[in-house]
Amino acid sequence: MKGGPLMWPILVCSILALAITIHKTIQFKVVLKGMRRSASDLLDSPVQQLAAYLHALAHGADQEHTSLAASQDLNSLEKGVGALSLIAAIAPLLGLTGTVLGMIDSFRVIAAHGSSAQVGLLAKGIWEALITTAAGLLVAIPVECAYHYLQRCLDEIALAMQGLSLQFGGKDDDRN
After folding, report:
1. With contact defined as beta carbons under 8 Å apart, do 76 and 28 qualify?
2. Of 38, 60, 63, 78, which sits with the fewest C-beta atoms within 10 Å of its C-beta?
3. In which domain, by residue range, is 27 found?
C-alpha cells in the first residue's frame, strides 16, 4: 500500500508471470521427456500429436505437410512465452511511472508549503517512488530470466523435433 496505486498492476504482472512460467516449464518438461522416449514408446507419450506426425512421415507422408503440422504444434507451445517478455518490459515502466508520481507528490508538497514543508510529507512521495521502482525491477529481472530459460527450452524442443523428423524421414529414404 505504501508504494501507491501502481503497486497493483506490478503485483498482477508478478502473479501472471509466475503462473505462465510454472505452466510453461511443466508443459515443456513433459514434451521433452516424451520426445526422449524410444520411437516405439512415443505413440503412448504426452506428445502423441508429434508422434502421429512422425509416424506418418515414416510411412511415406509428405514431409512438407508433416513439417508444417509440427511447426504449428511448436507455435502453440510458444503461446504465452512472449507475454513474459512483455511483462519484463512493462514492470520497470510501471515502477518508473510510480517514481514520477511519487516525485510529483513531493514537489506538490513543496509548492503548497514552500520552505516550511515538513520532511515527513516529502518523504512520503519519495518513499512511494522508491518502492514502486524497486518492485518493478524485482518483478522484471526474474521474469526476464524465466523468459530466456523458456526460450531455450523451446529451442531444445524444436531441435529435438527436427532430429526426430530427420530420423523418421531417413527411414522413408532407406526403403526406396
Report:
1. no
2. 38
3. 7-175
